[in-house]
Amino acid sequence: MTEQRSFRIEAVVLRHADWGEADRLLTLYSRERGKVRAIAKGARKMRSRKAGHLEPFTRVTLQLAKGRDLLIVTQADTLDAYLPMREDLIKTSHASYVVELLDRFTYEEELESFDIFRLLTGTLSLVASETDPWLAIRYYEVRLLNFLGYRPHLFECANCGEEIQPVDQFFSPAAGGVLCPKCGRGLPGAWEAPVEVIKYLRHFQRSDYAGAKRARPRPEVREAVERLLQRYITYLLERELNSPGFIRQIKNSPG
Length: 255
Fold this sequence. Notes:
single chain; alpha+beta; 3-stranded antiparallel beta sheet; 9 helices; 8 strands; 40% helix
C-alpha cells in the first residue's frame, strides 16, 4: 500500500524557530501522530497567509506534505487561538509552561495519544478562561505524569509497600513516590511531604477536573504542592525548565 504524500492533522503549535531566509520550523503536538516537526515555507514574509495561524499555543488544522527531509505545511487554519490568554502576560507565561513541559517530555514520531492531546487543549482553554490558573496547571502536571508513565506512588510506600497513613511523609523522586516515615527519614534525596500535600496530590490523581476544583488548599499548601511537583519534574527531566522562573519573575515584579 502506497504511503500518503499529503495528509491532514489537528495540532497545537508548541514552538517555532527561524529556518533559512524566510521559513519557519514548527514543533507540533498532534492528535493523530503525536509530536512532529514541519516547515512553513515563507511564513516569515510580511504577506504570508500562514504566519498568523502558526504562533505558539495555537490549535490548528494543517495540511502537510512529505518533503525530502521534513514535512511541509501546505495549508493552515486556526481552530482556537485562545485569545483571552494572549492579552494577559501571566496567562501567556502559564501557557508557555504548558507547552514547554510537554515538549521536554516527548519525542518525535511517538505513537499518537488522543488523551495527551485532549489534556493539552483542555488545559490551554482553562488557562485562557480561569481567573486563577493554579489548579489547571497542577492538574495538568499530575495527569500528564500519569499518561507518560511517571505516576508517583501516593497510596503505598514506594519502598516497603505499606499503606500510607494520614501523617507527614517523605517523597523520593528516585523511588517514584511517597515513602513512609520509617523508610524516608534520613534517606538522602528524600524530601519532607506534609500530609496535606499528599492529600491534594491524591485528590488530583483520582478526580476529573470538576472534582479537582472542589479542593480548596490553603496558600501555604498550594505552594508546597507546586514545589513538590516542580522538584519531581526537574528530577525526571534532569534539568530545570525556563517557564517557571519567568512566571516567578512576573509575579514578583512591581505592579
